[in-house]
Specification:
297 residues
């Protein structure tokens, strides 16, 4: 599946009053497109996009006016406020002051996958709502874009899955279990079978040096990405990203002990983006550096 890009944003980010600082273009993300920018005051109407739009206000308050048919809503939105616009609807909006934002465009596939079987979820428009968890997830995705490393692919996929699950839960009337709640003790989920877990682990080890999307792991287990992420954590107590990072670290330790390969080469062979990336992880997890670990071994 091709990555989401500018053509999936409904034309908003192509306007002259938008000055992007960074975007997820070129990172291969299939279900989300992230752009962080400054915006000048404007009023415009945009065509219906196939993606759901979530805008996180980084400063404020600012006045935003939204028109939908004969009705008009006007809100003073503070920093941390959320603007949500569902896929498939034209957008008529007015921004009355300068504003810094993070735009996140989410595929409907990711949303419905997070919702699970038993019907579809329909997002409702939001203007100035607040959700600390959504804010945290969007800022985390912006952080991934800001400090992008190829090995962060599984982490980015995990964040997108959790954001989609949060939105699905907030816009579902039947009170279905939220995967985020389940991951943090709020509900029981079944785990992977032994065969599914073995297939996922074998793929991680086989492709340990490569950026590995969650969708590939889910396919190996015969599950959707959302199902896989939830059930994997139930089985292992860790997200796919955390589990893969530990495998990479264990592999690096073996190579550092048993070979004289340059540390930079060890880092790349184990799926770290560069030597400094391996050093950061080893210092955080083990309290040492690759060079010191090799000397001690």
């Amino acid at each position: 599946m091709p990555e989401l890009g500018l053509l999936d944003t409904g034309g908003i980010l192509c306007q002259p009053w938008v000055s992007p600082d960074r975007t997820s273009s070129g990172l291969g993300w299939e279900h989300a497109y992230v752009s962080t920018q400054s915006e000048q005051p404007y009023r415009a109407r945009f065509y219906a996009a196939a993606t759901h739009l979530l805008i996180l206000h980084l400063d404020g308050p600012v006045t935003v006016r939204r028109r939908s048919g004969p009705s008009t809503q006007t809100r003073q939105i503070p920093a941390g406020g959320i603007f949500l616009h569902p896929a498939g609807r034209a957008l008529d909006v007015e921004l009355q002051e300068r504003l810094n934002t993070v735009h996140l465009y989410l595929s409907d596939t990711a949303l419905q996958d997070a919702h699970g079987p038993g019907g579809t979820v329909e997002l409702a428009e939001e203007l100035g709502s607040s959700d600390p968890l959504v804010e945290q997830l969007v800022l985390a995705l912006d952080g991934v874009v800001r400090r992008w490393e190829p090995s962060a692919r599984t982490y980015a996929d995990h964040l997108v899955t959790m954001l989609a699950a949060r939105l699905a839960r907030a816009h579902t009337a039947d009170g279905m279990a939220d995967p985020w709640d389940a991951e943090h003790g709020g509900g029981a989920l079944s785990g992977l079978t032994d065969q599914q877990l073995m297939s996922a682990r074998e793929l991680m080890e086989e492709r340990i040096s490569e950026p590995l999307p969650v969708s590939a792991l889910a396919s190996a287990a015969g599950l959707s990405a959302s199902q896989f992420s939830r059930q994997f954590r139930t089985s292992t107590g860790r997200s796919p990203h955390q589990f893969l990072l530990q495998l990479r670290l264990d592999h690096a330790r073996r190579l550092l002990r048993s070979t004289r390969q340059p540390i930079a080469e060890v880092a790349l062979r184990c799926g770290f983006s560069h030597q400094e990336h391996l050093t950061r992880v080893m210092r955080a997890k083990l309290g040492t550096t690759p060079a010191a670990f090799r000397r001690a071994a």
